[in-house]
């Protein structure tokens, strides 16, 4: 076995591959590492990994033997305030710990995007929780990139929440480091600038909004559900508007 660098969720990770460079998938998932020194072994859907041409195949000892991540909520990322008051902040959870619970009375959104190829047919999924009230959205976007799908999922969530938040805390959980980076960390966007500008306008309307990064495909239930809704939209080439669950 060997490793090679691939694109995943707007970033670059190391993925298990065969000696010929083909990804090594088991049950549709590939072992990945976010950095060579990682001692935890994560698994990502093969459809979400894009091979980077001309990247060399790396030897098996590039990464140490890893322990599988337990089936619980995990996340990482750097935190920085972006906006006035508590608007548009990004938060992390400590490695190996559960995601921080939302504050009392908060509205929670889990958002995700999917793309078959990059670019290719794309879709989004959103799960909204307001107390005991749960709503889901699945939208086919047509030809696009994974980053567009991730950002548009956030836009659709904030657009509907703008009417109901009414000053209450809002927490948006996403596994897109790219989205958090361009929206809250000052990352320079080379593409998708009109879409990012629209989302920033929406963000500015909330008095207490935080984006929370959660690793994808590690068993976080509502993140997995948002992903499934996005994938369903791509596979069916159809949309399902907000549905109460």
Largest sheet: 7 strands, mixed
Mean pLDDT: 83
Order of helices and strands: EEEEEEEEEEEHEHHEHE
- Report the sheet-strand fraction: 25-35%
Please provide the count of β strands.
Answer: 14
| Fourth-level CATH superfamily of the largest domain | Ribonuclease H-like superfamily/Ribonuclease H
Shape: globular
Q: Helicity, in percent?
A: 10-25%
Annotation field: number of helices:
4
- CATH class annotation of the largest domain: Alpha Beta
Catalogue the unreliable spans: 69-85, 92-97
Rg is 18 Å
How far the N terminus sits from the C terminus, by CA atoms, comes to 44 Å
- Which structural class do the helices and strands define? alpha/beta
Regarding quaternary structure, what we see is single chain
Number of domains: 2
The CATH architecture of the largest domain:
2-Layer Sandwich
CATH topology of the largest domain: Nucleotidyltransferase, domain 5
Written description of the protein model:
This protein folds into 2 domains: 2-68; 86-244, 2-Layer Sandwich (Nucleotidyltransferase, domain 5), CATH 3.30.420.10. It is of the alpha/beta class. The strands form 2 sheets. Strands 1, 2, 3, 4, 5, 6 and 7 form a 7-stranded mixed beta sheet that branches. The model is unreliable at 69-85 and 92-97 (pLDDT under 50). It has helices at residues 146-161, 177-184, 193-203, 221-236; strands at 2-8, 11-17, 25-26, 29-33, 40-45, 50-51, 67-68, 86-91, 107-115, 120-130, 133-144, 170-174, 208-213, 240-244. The longest helix has 16 residues, at 146-161. Helices cover 21% and strands 35% of the residues. The protein has 4 helices and 14 strands. Helix 1 (146-161) packs parallel to helix 3.
């Amino acid at each position: 076995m060997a490793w090679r660098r691939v694109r995943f969720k707007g970033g670059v990770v190391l993925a298990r591959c065969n000696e010929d460079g083909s990804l090594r998938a088991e049950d549709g998932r590939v072992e990945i590492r976010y950095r060579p020194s990682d001692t935890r072994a994560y698994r990502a859907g093969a459809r979400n990994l894009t091979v980077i041409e001309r990247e060399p195949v790396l030897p098996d000892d590039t990464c140490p033997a890893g322990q599988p991540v337990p089936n619980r909520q995990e996340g990482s990322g750097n935190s920085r305030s972006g906006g006035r008051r508590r608007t548009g902040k990004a938060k992390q959870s400590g490695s190996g710990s559960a995601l921080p619970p939302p504050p009392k009375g908060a509205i929670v959104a889990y958002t995700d995007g999917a793309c078959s190829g990059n670019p290719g047919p794309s879709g989004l999924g959103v799960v909204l929780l307001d107390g005991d009230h749960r709503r889901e959205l699945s939208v086919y976007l047509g030809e696009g990139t994974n980053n567009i799908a991730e950002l548009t999922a956030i836009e659709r969530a904030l657009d509907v929440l703008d009417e109901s938040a009414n000053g209450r805390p809002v927490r948006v959980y996403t596994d897109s480091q790219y989205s958090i980076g361009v929206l809250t960390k000052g990352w320079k966007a080379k593409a998708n600038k009109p879409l990012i500008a629209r989302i920033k306008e929406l963000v500015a309307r909330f008095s207490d909004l935080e984006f929370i990064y959660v690793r994808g495909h590690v068993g976080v239930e509502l993140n997995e559900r948002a992903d499934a809704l996005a994938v369903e939209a791509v596979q069916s080439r159809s949309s399902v508007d907000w549905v109460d669950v």
